[in-house]
Amino acid sequence: MQRRKFLRSSLAVTAATAAGTHSASAADAHFASKEVYEWREYEMRFGADVAQLENYFKTALIPALNKHGVKSVGVFKEWRPSDPAKIYLLTPYASLEQYAAVNGKVKADADFIKNSAAYNGVAVDKALYSRFTASLMSAFEGWPAITVPATGPRIFELRTYEGYSEDAVTRKVKMFNDGEYPIFQRAKLNPVFFGEVIAGDKMPRLTYLLSCSSMEERDKGWAAFIADPAWKKLVGDPQYANTISKIINTFLVPTSYSQV
Question: Which of left, alpha, beta for 161 (phi over 0: left; psi -120 to 50: alpha)?
Fold first, then answer.
């Protein structure tokens, strides 16, 4: 009798452990299925040679990232340039693990080191940028991977939503997942990525990137978006009230070598 009880108890523990392992694995797999994005904003110094930074991206960094499995690296400039200029870098990774692994591999890559020599040799009195800011984002469940727009003339709109609390941003992400993507597509505001910021400044916040063929198409698209019955229904849902405290949008154009 005691032996049977022991066996039943052991089997129960084993089953519970297996179930727990399965749940953890499922959660890990679910998180891994969503891409991770690093977004950098370089603020150039007055009079700096922007071409030197761009040459570094074009001949050293992007080839090294591509070599180690990172595709679709985007480099953008402002649609209406400021002074000093700003350069934006988008790097998509399959997972946080790939982000960590690839950055280590790139730093040790012989070709990258050789091709970065001119960039690393810039004298201190000729520094190219003051600093760059960076944020790390986890893709939304409903849009888990980057969508590269078709080639041709295109303008990008980078939109950042700040929330007054973590819950507010979580509810806004849910709003996207619950029905905003088809509205964007019907309005021809072509989504590139959606990301919740998991490391960076001015948190909590989320960021997403849209693409259009022109500013005129962008304006028509937003008019169609706001007029869409599905949007009116969604925005009227009480669970999505007070999700955004500040919106920042920036208009960008791709560089000639951008892969997005």
Answer: beta
Residue 130, both tokens = 């003051």
Taking the C-alpha atoms of residue 59 and residue 113, their distance in angstroms, rounded to an integer, is 11
b/e string for 17-49 if b means 16 or more Cβ within 10 A? eeeeeeeeeeeeeeeeebbbbbbebbebeeebe
Percent of the chain whose pLDDT exceeds 90: 84
Whether the Cβ atoms of residue 128 and residue 53 lie closer than 8 Å to each other = yes
Nearest CA among 196, 157, 162 for reference residue 176: 196
What is the C-alpha separation between 148 and 221, in angstroms, rounded? 19
CA dihedral (95, 97, 102, 107) positive or negative:
positive
Other Cβ atoms less than 10 A from the Cβ of 71: the count is 12
CA–CA–CA angle 78, 60, 86 (5° rounding): 15
- Amino acid present at 55: N
Q: pLDDT per residue over 162-199, tens digit each?
A: 999 999 999 999 999 999 999 999 999 999 999 999 99
Say if residues 252 and 78 touch (Cβ distance below 8 Å).
yes
| Token output for 171 | 């509810």
What is the CA angle 37-40-42, rounded to 5? 170
**Which residues does residue 193 pair with via DSSP β-bridges, in sequence order?**
209
